[in-house]
């Protein structure tokens, strides 16, 4: 029997919509139009993970601990932090050995966060796209400093889209891999992303009405936001950036070698999230798939966003990718992880996406967090 490879490290960032949990407007979506950043951040300031050295705090210093408000960061004309146009809240786990440990950590943090929010009349909800708005407009208009910052820093590219969209960032690192192995895996994930993201499609609503496809989030996002990032030593970044557009300078030493996959829609269940984490691990371990890319195939993403697995090219690519990941996990001595991909096989066979269930429910989001839906996501 082949020996298992070194246990990969996983960290998960998951974005949630906020809603009123009770009162006369129970279920009302709370966002940048009706949330006060300073008031809400004060309610959530006492939180776990503030002293965790494995997590970066972000440029403006507002991303700290295991949860934080997420949205569009605004600055004063002198460059100091002004406010945040709140889109929702994000949980992030520290790196954990293996998928199951990361998922357990995510659920533990989610439970603590849900209890805190409930005490203030708020609750979590899952949606891949804010279903209320057709667009996010800057209020107030960008000042000169902000215009310059966003022109120079590509992390702000598509911020008007990111402020409406929700998804998991799945972070994995292989402890014994070098840069070439990491870059090879990142390029592979970038190439095959349009085939695997339909497993998560969960945004069939747009601007208060049903959209004509299954992932308005993917359709909007794919031309503006990266699907994959690879974090490297800042000292090596100037040279490596000439080799790949996927690399980013690590903010912490622990981040070096981390691959971040950002293209999935926010998923309605822990089962689906876990399956997709194992799928990414299998694709990184695979040595048979030939595709590699540095840039997004926008046309293919948008075909997938509208048609899902009804499109033959997308279904064929997903089937091939899923089989390769299953084989790689089994060959690595991890048959249990290979079996966790079974729900994805069922989705592919039935062409039934999470968006189908959401649309059929008549709801524009799933109330509650992942703990309420640990299985049966289809």
From TrEMBL:
Alphabetically ordered keywords of this record: Ligase
Domain of life of the organism encoding this protein: Bacteria
Matches recorded under Gene3D superfamilies: 3.30.590.20
Protein name: Glutamate--cysteine ligase
Alphabetized InterPro entries for the sequence: GCS2, Gln_synth/guanido_kin_cat_dom
Entry keyword annotation includes Nucleus: no
Organism: Serpens gallinarum
Molecular-function annotations in GO: ligase activity
Keyword Iron appears in the UniProt entry: no
């Amino acid at each position: 029997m082949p020996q298992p490879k070194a246990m990969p490290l996983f960290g998960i960032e998951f974005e949630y919509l906020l809603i009123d949990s009770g009162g006369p407007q129970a279920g009302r979506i709370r966002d940048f139009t009706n949330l006060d950043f300073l008031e809400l951040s004060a309610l959530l300031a006492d939180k776990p993970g503030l002293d965790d050295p494995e997590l970066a705090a972000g440029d403006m210093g507002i991303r700290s601990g295991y949860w934080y408000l997420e949205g569009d960061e605004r600055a004063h004309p002198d460059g100091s932090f002004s406010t945040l146009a709140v889109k929702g809240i994000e949980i992030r786990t520290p790196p954990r050995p293996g998928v199951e440990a990361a998922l357990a950590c995510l659920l533990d943090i989610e439970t603590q966060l849900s209890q805190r929010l409930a005490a203030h009349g708020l609750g979590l909800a899952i949606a891949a796209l804010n279903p209320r708005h057709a667009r996010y407009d800057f209020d107030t208009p960008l000042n000169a400093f902000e215009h310059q910052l966003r022109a120079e820093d590509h992390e702000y590219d598509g911020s008007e889209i990111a402020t409406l969209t929700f998804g998991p960032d799945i972070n994995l690192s292989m402890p014994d891999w070098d840069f070439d192995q990491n870059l090879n895996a990142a390029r592979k994930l970038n190439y095959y992303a349009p085939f695997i993201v339909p497993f998560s499609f969960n945004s069939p609503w747009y601007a208060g009405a049903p959209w004509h496809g299954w992932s308005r989030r993917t359709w909007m996002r794919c031309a503006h936001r990266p699907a994959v990032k690879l974090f490297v030593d800042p000292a090596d970044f100037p040279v490596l950036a000439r080799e790949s557009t996927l690399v980013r300078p690590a903010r912490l030493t622990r981040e070096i070698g981390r691959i971040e996959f950002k293209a999935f829609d926010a998923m309605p269940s822990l089962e689906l999230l876990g399956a997709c984490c194992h799928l990414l691990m299998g694709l990184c371990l695979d040595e048979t798939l030939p595709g590699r890319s540095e840039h997004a195939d926008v046309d293919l993403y948008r075909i997938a966003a509208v048609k899902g697995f009804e499109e033959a090219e997308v279904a064929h690519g997903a089937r091939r990718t899923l089989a390769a990941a299953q084989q790689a996990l089994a060959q690595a001595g991890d048959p249990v992880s290979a079996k966790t991909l079974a729900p994805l096989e069922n989705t592919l066979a039935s062409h039934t996406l999470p968006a189908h269930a959401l649309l059929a429910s008549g709801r524009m989001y799933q109330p509650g967090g992942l703990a309420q839906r640990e299985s049966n996501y289809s």
